[in-house]
Amino acid sequence: MIVRLSSFVIPLLYLMLLLFAVPLVHGKRITVAYEAEAATVINSPFGLAVPRLTIVSGYFTYESSAMDLNPGDLRRGRFLLSGSWDFRAEFLGKVITGSDRATASTNTSATPTLSFEDGSTTGDSGIMLLDGIPNKEIALNFRISGKTEDLPTDQLPTEFGFQSATHTFVIADDSGRMLLQFRSFQQVDLSIKSITREGDIVEIEWCALKEKRYRLEYSSNLRNWSIIQDDLAGNPMSSTLSDNLAFRFLAADPIPLGGFYRIVDRAPAPPDR
Question: Nearest CA to 202 among 245, 258, 265, 252?
């Protein structure tokens, strides 16, 4: 969704702009925040003594238009998530993040099931990270089951309607594994919450997730976009950034009366190998 800012002067019309880095015609980037708990812990995963019922929280992101690698089967889909996949899990002071590529699969032949794999679980996946350091031992695998309306086709869903229930969730390394139970899901739509202006300073506030990366862009015509600031780290629930119009339009006379902003869900950079 892109809302036009017809004038920098009228505050009501600041409640404009953007949502998705990729136009809807090409698909939709879905971000889901989750909370889970450790139902079973085997040995000492990641070198930790993890108590049972330890809370794990984070998010995962996928692109709904990812190409089906198994187009001949209309009940089962398989997808390589490259450039759009993002995963984060926090627990006991540790942070696990996803690789630059993972795999997803769908199965509508019985109970509709959506699955994701990353790390050492499959040869198609990349290397996951522990506290920002690549670790070839980390493996992620989770399966989410739902109703027919949650997964009406074998394509990746454009809206995440699954509810918390009995879903398999495993994070492991060579030292042990955590078998987790999802407690809740919440799809997080990227949107601008408010825009205010004082003089030549425009302040933009948008919905955000902790440590997820974003980019703020501006356009005067919805065709050509310029980057105001890149690689922005999100804060819990919302983030803010100021745009100095006088500085950006230093050579312009006068400052344009209208324009567009958009917040882009920035794909994570591949880790150093």
Answer: 245
